[in-house]
């Protein structure tokens, strides 16, 4: 039987719950994230390669495409090339990638993401908020998966599934299954043939509508915009698969864990009283949870990073979670940290393409739920053996429900800029 986590100090309580989520996901990841910073800013670890925990050195690696690649062993592009095909080499790095990023630059902006999220989330978020107002319970982990499943269907141009909410949850679970295939990649990103075959089958199924949607979708939709921006059908299909893996579990866990942090630290009361704190809540939630806790790269040419002399062919693990959390726990008063910037979204030419969308999703969930009043967590369990640390369930109620008002609706969060 697991004992409940109890601590009188809210900051320590929040940190202990976060630690429990990391531990449950993968004890080895938890141990690495805790132990590596003690060994210095950059260190070679047997079987893993170079491990970087310092935010400035982390950004130096991610900002240096001349010496690091994500296509070599250790990088996520290496995984994708085996599943999506050789064209990944052309569009995920080098001039082809720079060209794709230039054309895809405007796919998600803060201004386009907010109305998209409001429209796609409303059918599931509004009933959940009403349930809280009526004194009922909401599982925020399940709700986040459902909301992100809805967004995924929207982005992939999938027809609204017959099974309603259940089908959106299944879509999310399929994305999770795909990501889990990469679980064994900590020591090597070379995938066995059966894993490649399984991943290809999942992607084929999930992106089956992309060619039709790409040809027919109105310019206002994601695939329609890809077409208008001059992306080829193959590029749009690859990008769709990437969005599915990059933007599902990461976004859902940021949403759930940020709400838990706001509750555990007691800082939700300040946010409820002062909605201007929303950008700080989103930034701190992303920093502390760092949903993509590790970013891999291969060394393509010999290079010095701080005190480390790295050789071509070696691997680097950038521990973004450790780098971001060096500053301390969740704190709405913490100023923007220039040394880490938005390291939770990576850095350099592969900086998260969906950052604006992720911020809008997180802002919308938090604003929507807290519009019903401060929440009380009545039960939680961490997800075990998952790639992205998360809660399996986070059940909340509202202790003092607030009536629906036009200024505090689930559809109108304050803007959250890049910081
Ligand atoms: C809180 C949620 C999210 C986090 C923490 C996150 C984090 C990241 C990180 C760290 C990278 C860089 C990986 C690397 O350098 O190897 C990345 C890349 C990417 N993300 Fe996100 N992401 C999130 C949500 C999303 C969403 C919602 C989408 C789109 C639907 C998305 C799409 C992408 C894409 C397409 C890339 C690859 C960019 C490139 O290689 O040029 N992400 N993300």
Automatic annotation (TrEMBL):
Pfam family for this entry, one: p450
Keywords linked to the UniProt accession: Heme, Iron, Metal-binding, Monooxygenase, Oxidoreductase
Keyword Heme: yes
Region (Disordered): 399-419
Entries under CDD domains matching the protein: cytochrome_P450
Keyword Heme: yes
InterPro entries: Cyt_P450, Cyt_P450_B, Cyt_P450_CS, Cyt_P450_sf
Family: Belongs to the cytochrome P450 family.
Protein name from the UniProt record: Cytochrome P450
Source lineage: Bacteria, Bacillati, Actinomycetota, Actinomycetes, Pseudonocardiales
């Amino acid at each position: 039987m697991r004992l409940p986590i109890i601590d009188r100090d809210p900051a320590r309580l929040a940190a202990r719950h976060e630690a429990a989520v990391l531990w449950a996901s993968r004890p080895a990841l938890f141990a690495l994230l805790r132990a590596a910073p003690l060994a210095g800013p950059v260190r070679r670890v047997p079987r893993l390669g170079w491990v970087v925990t310092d935010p400035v050195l982390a950004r130096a690696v991610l900002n240096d495409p001349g010496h690091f690649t994500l296509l070599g062993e250790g990088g996520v592009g290496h995984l994708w090339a085996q599943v999506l095909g050789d064209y990944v080499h052309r569009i995920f790095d080098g001039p082809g990638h720079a060209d794709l990023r230039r054309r895809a630059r405007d796919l998600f902006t803060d201004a386009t993401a907010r109305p998209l999220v409001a429209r796609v989330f409303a059918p599931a978020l509004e009933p959940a908020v009403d349930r809280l107002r009526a004194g009922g319970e909401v599982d925020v982990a399940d709700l986040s998966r459902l909301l992100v499943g809805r967004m995924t269907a929207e982005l992939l141009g999938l027809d609204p599934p017959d099974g309603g909410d259940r089908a959106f949850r299944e879509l999310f679970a399929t994305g999770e299954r795909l990501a889990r295939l990469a679980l064994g990649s900590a020591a090597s990103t070379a995938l066995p043939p059966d894993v490649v075959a399984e991943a290809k089958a999942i992607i084929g199924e999930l992106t089956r509508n992309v060619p039709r949607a790409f040809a027919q979708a109105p310019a206002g939709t994601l695939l329609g915009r890809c077409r208008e921006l001059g992306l080829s059908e193959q590029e749009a299909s690859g990008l769709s698969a990437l969005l599915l893996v990059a933007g599902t579990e990461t976004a859902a866990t940021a949403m759930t864990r940020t709400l838990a942090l706001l509750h555990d630290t007691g800082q939700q009361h300040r946010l409820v009283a002062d909605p201007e704190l929303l950008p700080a809540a989103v930034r701190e939630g992303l920093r502390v949870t760092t949903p993509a806790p590790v970013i891999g790269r291969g060394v393509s040419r010999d290079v010095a990073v701080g005190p480390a002399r790295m050789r071509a062919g070696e691997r680097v693990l950038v521990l973004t979670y450790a780098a971001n959390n060096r500053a301390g726990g969740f704190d709405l008063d913490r100023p923007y940290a220039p040394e880490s910037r938005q390291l939770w979204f990576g850095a350099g030419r592969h900086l998260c393409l969906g950052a604006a969308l992720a911020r809008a999703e997180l802002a919308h969930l938090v604003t929507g739920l807290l519009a019903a009043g401060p929440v009380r967590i009545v039960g939680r369990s961490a997800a075990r053996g998952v790639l992205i640390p998360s809660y399996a369930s986070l059940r909340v109620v509202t202790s003092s429900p607030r009536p629906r008002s036009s200024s505090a609706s689930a559809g109108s969060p304050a803007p959250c800029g890049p910081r």
